[in-house]
């Protein structure tokens, strides 16, 4: 609220025009007055003082400009007044913001021994025993006139903070009534609020005016200030100063100070203002101290919260955060430790795994080597069993060679025979020698110790080679061996010698089973039949069927067990090695009864994939 500038025109130029001619023709001195209880009150209190000045400057006169706090700020900012008569707090602000300078301090009739006269009285309704100290205000509702009122709020605010109560944080409610301040006393009296803050002496003034009954109130945390006549809850600060603006001429300021200092204590102006004249400007540093602690007015910038303030205010949260951080750090360390331990364990496990893998690889290599040895031994063993037959087989070409040679010798000795006949005999000898050589080469191939070599192999070829090796035995046992080899079979990816070995083993077993079986070779389908063809899944199947004694019940289940044999000189390794060989080629070997008597042992091998089919 800004009171309309109602200049109480006190120009008494006419009266005293000749007294101080220097000020003639000058505009009146304008004194801005803080009307904290409304314009009328300000007029009543301060008009006589301004009139006094007007009297002292007859050629110029003086006028009073009643202003509220914002009005004061605006008037000083605009330079529309020459002097300001304002409350202590407002003065400190104007001093800092606009460079106004105090030139005299009011000497209040109620001033204490120190000369200071401004303080606050915190009042509560009489009988409110729960509000005795300023600390009791915590959680209560409090009313003051205005946040900017010095004695009316700020002094009490500082005192409350000292008592541990922040009006802006610890109260249930903080309300501002605005001027006039009477409302505060009424609100306290009527129980609208628990307590009120009044500028010291306002309570007494209102009582004097008969507007309230002081018995209805008590002053909270009352304190005594030597020589000070009003009830008080706080310390005292200097009273209102008269201040000049920076733009106010020096000589005018001096003249005004002189005029004020010369005012007698019993002057009507002093009586009306309730003071006893003017005195030298007092020290307003305590006010600065208060404002600094409240961080208001010129010290508002201190409100920019510093880290330290935050830390002080929220220390418990910070402590909690620090604890949480500590926990987190400990947790992280623990997790890191666990990870390290786990990593070490994993590394060990890895090392162990690698060692086991190497061992396994070694074991596999050894097993493969053993298998190779076994194959070899098995081949030697089969060959051993058939040695006499093979010898017999070799005997034929050797016998033929000997016959041819002997015939040639006889003819030569008898002097008969033509060159053509001798050439023919030589060719026959060479052919028989080749045949014998082939048999020996095949045997050598068969028994050679060698690593398995997979390559596309013709199954029928392998069958033929195997049958060649046992043809002699079959013949001598008088057992016919029938070939039923399918044409156009796809090659299999296999070690040809091993396939030969399997076929030879199966045929040998078939011959063994048939030897001594009466009528085994006789009749339709008698003897041993070796059949090749494709099974339903496109695999190459080789079956060796015989009409021998067939599989006994025990042999049916233990046929492939190593060392299972029913033969007097048998080792019982043949079929178990055959199965290992076939399975290492991705195939399968099994035995069934031959429906016509005897047994059929078959095995299948997967056909070589296309990309291998053409490989050499
Ligand atoms: P071995 O020939 O040294 O006995 P094998 O593993 O080749 O070892 O054969 C094991 C056993 O399986 C033979 O002793 C025999 O009892 C039986 N057996 C193998 N083939 C036949 C077959 N075609 N007919 C009947 N029994 C067979």
Automatic annotation (TrEMBL):
What is the top-level taxon of the source organism? Bacteria
Span of the signal peptide: 1-24
Q: Which residues form a coiled coil?
A: 339-373
CDD domains in UniProt: HisKA
Which positions fall inside the Histidine kinase domain?
389-609
Q: Name one Pfam family in it.
A: Phosphonate-bd
Instruction: Give the UniProt keywords, A-Z.
Output: ATP-binding, Coiled coil, Kinase, Nucleotide-binding, Phosphoprotein, Signal, Transferase, Two-component regulatory system
Q: Which PANTHER family match?
A: PEROXIDE STRESS-ACTIVATED HISTIDINE KINASE MAK3 (PTHR43065:SF10), SENSOR HISTIDINE KINASE (PTHR43065)
Q: What is this protein called?
A: histidine kinase
The organism is Azospirillum isscasi
* Organism taxonomic ancestry: Bacteria, Pseudomonadati, Pseudomonadota, Alphaproteobacteria, Rhodospirillales
């Amino acid at each position: 609220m800004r009171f309309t500038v109602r200049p109480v025109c006190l120009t008494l130029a006419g009266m005293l025009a000749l007294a101080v001619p220097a000020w003639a023709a000058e505009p009146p001195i304008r004194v801005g007055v803080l009307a904290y209880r409304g314009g009328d009150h300000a007029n009543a209190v301060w008009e006589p003082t301004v009139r006094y000045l007007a009297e002292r400057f007859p050629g110029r006169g003086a006028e009073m400009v009643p202003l509220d706090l914002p009005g004061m700020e605006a008037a000083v900012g605009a330079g529309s007044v020459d002097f300001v008569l304002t409350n202590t707090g407002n003065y400190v602000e104007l001093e800092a913001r606009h460079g106004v300078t105090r030139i005299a301090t009011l000497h209040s009739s109620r001033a204490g021994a120190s000369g200071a006269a401004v303080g606050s009285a915190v009042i509560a309704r009489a009988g409110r025993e729960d509000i005795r100290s300023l600390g009791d205000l915590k959680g209560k509702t409090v009313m003051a006139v205005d946040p900017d009122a010095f004695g009316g709020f700020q002094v009490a605010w500082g005192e409350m903070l000292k008592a541990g109560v922040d009006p802006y944080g610890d109260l249930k409610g903080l309300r501002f009534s605005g001027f006039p301040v009477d409302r505060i006393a009424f609100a306290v009296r009527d129980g609208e609020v628990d307590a009120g803050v009044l500028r010291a002496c306002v309570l007494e003034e209102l009582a004097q005016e008969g507007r309230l009954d002081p018995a209805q109130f008590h002053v909270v945390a009352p304190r005594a200030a030597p020589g000070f006549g009003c009830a008080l809850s706080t310390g005292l600060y200097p009273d209102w100063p008269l201040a000049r603006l920076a733009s106010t001429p020096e000589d005018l300021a001096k003249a005004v100070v002189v005029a004020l200092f010369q005012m007698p204590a019993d002057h009507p102006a002093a009586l009306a203002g309730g003071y006893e004249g003017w005195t030298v400007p007092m020290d307003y540093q305590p006010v600065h101290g208060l404002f600094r602690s409240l961080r208001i007015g010129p010290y508002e910038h201190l409100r920019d919260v510093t880290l330290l303030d935050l830390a002080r205010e929220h220390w418990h949260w910070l402590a909690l955060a620090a604890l949480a951080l500590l926990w987190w750090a400990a947790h992280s360390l623990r997790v890191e430790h666990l990870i390290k331990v786990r990593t070490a364990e994993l590394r060990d496990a890895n090392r162990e795994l690698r060692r086991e893998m190497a061992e396994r690889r070694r074991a596999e290599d050894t097993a493969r080597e053993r298998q190779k040895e076994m194959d070899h031994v098995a081949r030697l063993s089969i060959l051993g069993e058939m040695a006499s037959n093979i010898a017999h087989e070799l005997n034929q070409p050797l016998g033929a060679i000997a016959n041819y040679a002997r015939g040639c010798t006889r003819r030569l000795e008898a002097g008969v025979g033509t060159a053509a006949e001798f050439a023919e005999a030589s060719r026959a000898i060479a052919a028989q020698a080749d045949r014998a050589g082939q048999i020996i080469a095949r045997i050598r191939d068969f028994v050679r110790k060698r690593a398995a070599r997979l390559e596309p192999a013709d199954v029928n070829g392998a069958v033929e080679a195997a049958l060649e090796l046992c043809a002699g035995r079959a013949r001598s046992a008088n057992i016919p061996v029938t070939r039923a080899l399918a044409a156009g079979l796809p090659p299999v990816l296999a070690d040809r010698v091993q396939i030969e070995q399997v076929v030879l083993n199966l045929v040998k077993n078939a011959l063994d089973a048939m030897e001594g079986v009466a009528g085994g070779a006789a009749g339709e389908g008698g003897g041993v039949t070796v059949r090749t063809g494709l099974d339903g899944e496109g695999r190459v199947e080789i079956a060796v069927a015989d009409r021998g004694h067939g599989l006994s019940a025990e042999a049916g289940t233990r046929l492939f067990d190593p060392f299972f044999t029913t033969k007097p000189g048998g080792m019982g390794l043949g079929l178990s090695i055959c199965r290992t060989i076939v399975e290492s080629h991705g195939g399968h070997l099994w035995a069934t009864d031959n429906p016509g008597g005897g047994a059929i042992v078959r095995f299948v091998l997967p056909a070589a994939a296309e990309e291998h089919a053409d490989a050499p």
